[in-house]
Write a structure and sequence with these properties.
alpha/beta
């Protein structure tokens, strides 16, 4: 079976942001044993899939065996680049069309595995509530260090809520300049109402100036801010 190609991010600033997310998730696992995390947007178009892919790849790159699950069974595969060359996915297993081993794909990123959404389903909520879904969760929990669910926005469908009550923690994704304050509040309240374990929010689509204002020391080591550059220059000249 060919490995699915996961695009590699070489942006230093973006990697710094995901390193912080990896650290927070690592701490949650060490302190509370958390290993399954649901990523969902507050509103449609918040960029949850991009965040989920990069986070899963970052966890895998740290040496943790990680599986990323595309839980959005309401979109056709043609809308998703990662799913273009796959045969089976989550919905196919939940509908008893294939075995669970046939829906787990290796990727070009070491330690990272991927479960695509499968065939388009008009109403996947019932499948997500099924005993077959419990079987998926149990197997993944035994086989992987981290399980990342990429789900539709909370305010767009009920699917995220169904899975949210079965994972260790939920992370909301919002988009700077796009997600409304009402959307964030409504999504958070919806998760609190069902007693999901909401542990935080990732703000997506910040520009460079906005990121620097939130984290002014993101380039501390690269730019050597507190090094006496005049002294280094003199040393080089004397050599």
């Amino acid at each position: 079976m060919n490995r699915l190609e996961i695009y590699k991010n070489d942006n230093y600033v973006l990697n710094d942001a995901f390193d912080q997310a990896v650290m927070n998730i690592y701490i949650l696992k060490r302190q509370n044993g958390y290993k399954s995390f649901l990523m969902c947007g507050c509103e449609a178009g918040d960029g949850t899939t991009t965040v989920a892919i990069n986070l899963a790849a970052a966890l895998a790159s740290s040496g943790c065996k990680t599986v990323l699950i595309d839980g959005d069974m309401r979109k056709k595969n043609s809308y998703k680049r990662l799913n273009e060359s796959v045969t089976f996915g989550l919905s196919d297993y939940l509908l008893n069309r294939t075995s669970i081993d046939n829906i787990i794909y290796e990727t070009t990123t070491e330690n990272l595995y991927y479960i695509p959404c499968g065939e388009l389903i008009d109403n996947p909520t019932r499948l997500l509530c099924s005993s077959k879904m419990d079987e998926v969760r149990n197997k993944l929990s035994m086989d992987y260090d981290f399980i990342i669910y990429d789900m539709p926005a909370v305010n767009a469908a009920t699917d995220a809520k169904v899975v949210a009550v079965s994972v260790d923690a939920v992370v909301l994704v919002s988009s700077m300049g796009k997600t409304s304050k009402k959307g964030v509040v409504d999504a958070a309240n919806a998760l609190v109402e069902i007693k999901a374990n909401l542990v935080g929010t990732i703000i997506n689509k910040l520009d460079m100036k906005q990121y620097a204002s939130y984290n002014e020391n993101y380039d501390y080591f690269r730019n050597e801010k507190y090094v006496d550059k005049k002294r280094i220059s003199k040393r080089k000249n004397s050599d």
